[in-house]
Write a structure and sequence with these properties.
Blueprint: H1 5-24, H2 28-60, H3 66-70, H4 72-97, H5 103-121, H6 125-131, H7 133-159, H8 165-188
Helix pairs in contact: 1-2, 1-4, 2-4, 2-8, 5-7, 6-7, 7-8
Length: about 200
Amino acid sequence: MGEHRPIILGGAIGLLACVAGFMLGADAIEDWQLAARYTARVAFLLFLCVYCMGPAFRLTQSPSLRAPLRNRRAWGLGFALAHGVHLAALVTFLIVSGRPTSPITLLLGGLGYVVLLALVLTSNDAAVKRLGARWKTLHRFGVHYLWLIFTLTYLGRIAEPNPSSQSYVLFALALGAAALRLAGFVKGRGQPKAV
């Protein structure tokens, strides 16, 4: 049961973020808008945990990171579940509000969900064995593409008139995560895998 906790946690956090949106919104449109916003933020924070786990361990060799790192697949699935809740909230908001979405957002964001689905469907031992080296390529591309989508989203929020302070924080977290990955990559080159 313990290995499934991150998946349950991801779903619970996504649903709680939805509830928070419903509690704080003034009407149905704002309820769903806030639910979409909050679910995106919590999913992003879960994503950062998965994205940074390996590099953080390589840099610190912290024993406290060993167990989460061994269970990274479940953490990734927890993120995917939370982000699935975000997708449901976002689609509902777009339907309820009638707000149009730009073709570029649909293309890049839609591709992000296709990539996420591919990661979920291949997050099992059978897929690892069947795909061989291509599994690592797919997952490396996938996490970097998802990082790019989150980063561009928060950069776009900063470019809007009167951006919120949360947009700056989230964008800074995305850049910090990339810096951590780069530092972990540099340190990890030529070293045997610890876990």
